[in-house]
Amino acid sequence: MSSTTLAARRDRAFGAGAPLFYNTPLHIVRGEGVELFDPEGRRYVDMYNNVPCVGHANSHVAEAMARQQSTLNVHSRYLHEGIVAFAERLTALHGPAIESVIFSCSGTEANEVALRMARMATGKSGIVCTNATYHGNSEAVGKMTRIGTGQNAAGDVRAIPFPEMLRPLVPGAGEDELREAYLDRLRQAIRGLEEDGTGFAGLIVCSIFANEGLPDVPSGFMARAAEIVREAGGLVIADEVQAGYCRSGQWWGYDVLGFKPDIVVTGKPMGNGLPLAATAASRTLVEGFRAATRYFNTFASSPLQAAVGMAVIDVIERDGLAANVATVGAFLKSALAERKGRFASIADVRGHGLFIGVEIARTDAAREPDMDKAVDIINRLKDRGFLTSNAGAYRNVVKIRPPLVFKQSHAEEFLVAFDATMADVDG
Ligand code: PMP
């Protein structure tokens, strides 16, 4: 079937408007490791998908899934050792303060649990987030999506400007002054919530500010922000849906930015594609939430989630993927950073491990974000067989976030295509 016919059928079946990537949508039929294939067998290197973290069609995960599904899969109101062992293994990946876990099926649900947990524990409802974030699509969690700092003077969610060095809140400020300026906005948001009677329950951030475009953050910002939150009686929620599971080369993004959360939310990569998410915290916080809600989630905490979740961690540990991410990520980031001097449109190269952002800007003196050029680059890279996307507060950041099994040879291949693409757009 032609891609055009399939796209028309899709519009009828889904209703038009369901998003697709690229100028000409990509029709794929098979994946293996970091490679995806179209119906004609054309190969694409996947440099976008973080969900299949241990690779597309990973055999260890597929076998664990099939074995469990053909043995037992049932909801969580029975004793089953697999799910207990998985909860123990997951919490052991954090420090001792993270003791217990509530499983769910999506990052949205896990963030919803985190917000409710923070609100119940503090007896307050005010949440502070950043102004260009995304934490999920439910009514409560979706309220935090890209709310500008100006629009949020009321209600129980307040946004602060995300911290960044490239387009700083105080132009020309040194790093220490800048850190204090961003922290002041946090203090103001907390004060505002207290003054209007909402009260302050907590701060939620993606630990590496992924949806904001992976900004370089003034050093020490998150450690001090966490102290300010706790001094004000609030809780720190780390959304590790994107940042966690070795994406940065370390297990958790909060270690990269140097802070300790009270509540950790994980999702996307946990099940390599099986819906699996978690909200982990101290036993006291989790038990408080359980007592107040008797939370139940039909498909969560199942033997299937446990078997798959275990298999994913097995592969990450067995194949040394954290080290792979650190090594290949460092190589690719420095190779891209070196190209900043060579191609006028590249304004910045940032990121951690195998999560790299290439900021595309206009080439005139203003250096304004150039989303159209970023989109053009992404489409040209796709035509050359490399799949990326765009992200960031201004959607002008070429987002590179391959499965964790991405190798040095893939990075080298990509750089050839990247150079040719940048030569096309920059002349
Ligand atoms: N948190 C972050 C940081 C995300 O990027 C996303 C999804 N892109 C979510 C939460 C929501 O996860 P889900 O789509 O599984 O609900």
Automatic annotation (TrEMBL):
InterPro entries: Aminotrans_3, Aminotrans_3_PPA_site. Its cofactor is pyridoxal 5'-phosphate. Keywords: Aminotransferase, Pyridoxal phosphate, Transferase. The keyword Repeat does not apply. It holds the Pfam family Aminotran_3. The keyword Ribonucleoprotein does not apply. One of its GO terms (molecular function) is transaminase activity. Belongs to the class-III pyridoxal-phosphate-dependent aminotransferase family. This is Aminotransferase class III-fold pyridoxal phosphate-dependent enzyme. It comes from Reyranella humidisoli. The lineage of its organism: Bacteria, Pseudomonadati, Pseudomonadota, Alphaproteobacteria, Hyphomicrobiales.
